[in-house]
Structure formats: C-alpha cells, structure tokens
Amino acid sequence: MIGKIYGTGSSLPKRIVSNDDLAKIVDTNDTWIRERTGVARRRIIKEETTVSMATEAAQKALEQSGIAAEEVDLILVSTISSEVILPCTACEVQKNIKAVNAAAFDINAACAGFLFGYNTAQAYIAAGMAKTVLVIGSESLSNLVNWKDRSTCILFGDGAGAAVLKAEKGKLLPSVSHSDGKKGEALTCLSRHRKGSPARTRDLQAYMQMDGQSVFKFAVKKVPKAVKEVLEEAGLKADDIDYFILHQANRRIVEAVAKRLKTDIEKFPMNLEEYGNTSSASIPILLDEMNRKGKFVKRQKIILAGFGAGLSWGAALLEW
Prior knowledge:
The protein is of the alpha/beta class. It has helices spanning 19-22, 30-37, 50-65, 89-97, 113-126, 150-153, 212-234, 251-260, 272-275, 282-292; strands at residues 2-11, 16-18, 41-43, 74-78, 103-107, 132-140, 158-168, 175-179, 187-193, 204-210, 243-246, 301-308, 312-319. The chain contains 10 helices and 13 strands. Strands 1-7-6-4-5 form a 5-stranded mixed β-sheet, sandwiched between helices. A 4-stranded mixed β-sheet has the order 8-13-12-11, with helices on both faces. It is globular and about 55 Å long.
C-alpha cells in the first residue's frame, strides 16, 4: 500500500512584517536582505498559535479531501515552536478537529520535519498500521527569534501546512532520511532556566543561533545527494521530475541545488519571498499553494526535500 495525497491545507498569520519593518529594529535594509536570502516579507503571529494554525491547516486539508475527521487513524505534527509541551500539539489538533479515532504525536526534526513526517506516514500505511494519516508542519518561529540578531531575525516566519494521505494499492515509492548529530551545533536553540527557579514556561529563554555558512554548505551538498539517491532507486533522472518542492530556507540554496542537479530552476517553485523560512511548515505551505492554483496534474512526479537542524535531511518521491 502507498499513501496518496487527497487534500492539502495551510494557515498563515494575518500580520505581515516587511524588510522595511525589520530595518526599524535592526541594522539592515530591504536590498541587503533580498540579495542574501530572497525574503521580502514574512508572517508573524499575533493572536494565532502553533496549535491554532495547525488546526486550521488540518481542517482545510480534510475539507478539500472530502475525508471526515473520524476516518483519520494517525495525526503527525512536526514543530519545534509549539506553545504547549504537554499535551503535544498533535493531540491538541486531534481534540480540535474531533478526530476521535486517531493516534497523535509530535515530531521534532526542524526544517526536515514535514519530510520526516511524510516518510513516517508512508511507513505506517505500508505496514498496514494506518489507512488515513494527517501530516502537519506548524511553526511559531517568531517566539524563538532574537529580534536583535540581524543574522537570524530576517530569515524566519510563522505558519502551518498540512496534507491528508490515504492508503491506495500501489508500490511504496523511494524515500531517504539522514542525520548527522556531530554537526548539530551549526543550528541550535537551547532552553535555559533561570538559576534557582522552577522549570516554568515563563522562565525559559530560547533563541535560535545559526552558523549560516556551515548550513549553506551542508544544504547544497547533502540535498542534491539525497535527491539523487531517490532518483537512482526509482530508476529516474532529474529530467523526469515535474517539480522539486524544497524546504524554503534561502533562494541561493534552492538555486544551488537546481544547478547541481543540472535542472531547470523553473522546476523549483519558491514562495519564501512572501513567507520567509517557516521551518517544517514550508514544504506543506508550498504544496498547498501549488495544489490550489491547479499546478499539479495527475501522474506528475514530484520530489520533496527537507534539510535543517540536527543536522537532518532527506527526500521523497511522490506521484500526484
């Protein structure tokens, strides 16, 4: 059995923060940010939360799929930035959408999270452990950003995306997942408790820190290799793929991957100009945008590729 995507959904905060807005709080400008990242705007939560966005994205995906929440067997939510630790975000979503028959748990794989969640869903379906799986990526990264650090605050945004996978007869398509914990210090977010105080949420200070050059070199080297692994196992070439849906980290990374794969950049859609890096939400948000614009046609071959903290990365082949 294989999991086919029956519906997609996304949720984005209403508040838009432009590069010019950021220039008012850190030493930067619109041109500097665009040239280095490709980002022009990002969405930042105000009243929204990681749970509320995950819930809305899930509801939209189910509505499009025509599948009732009661039919869902499993809910996977990838997030590093939920406002709740216990119950997990996935259980909160289960409650909110009334998916009473679903098991639910969270995945922490940062920017590779949705890809890892997708691969996990496929494994559950192939093993006969689930027939209908809801995979969600939801992030409120603005809660983890040091808004005085120009190197990181310009990059990230908030949002959520979701996909409903339903079991169909078919051969499981190739996918790969990798991690290298030895290089994890390139992208970190450490929680620190105040001395002498109990471990309460309000006592936590957590900021993302990143060695941008190391992450860039890692991504442009490892992502093409992962994609080639999948292509080789499937007996395909890059020219056989209709779209490469990459994690939306940085325009330069996406362009570098396309160049290394010797593939037309037009096959690499991007929306990071509008939303920035939304970590585990970036792939499903882009999937939903393209799906709702009618860009996907039945039988098209698509590769998903995620990469980020861990360091973790991977790729998966799907047929629309």
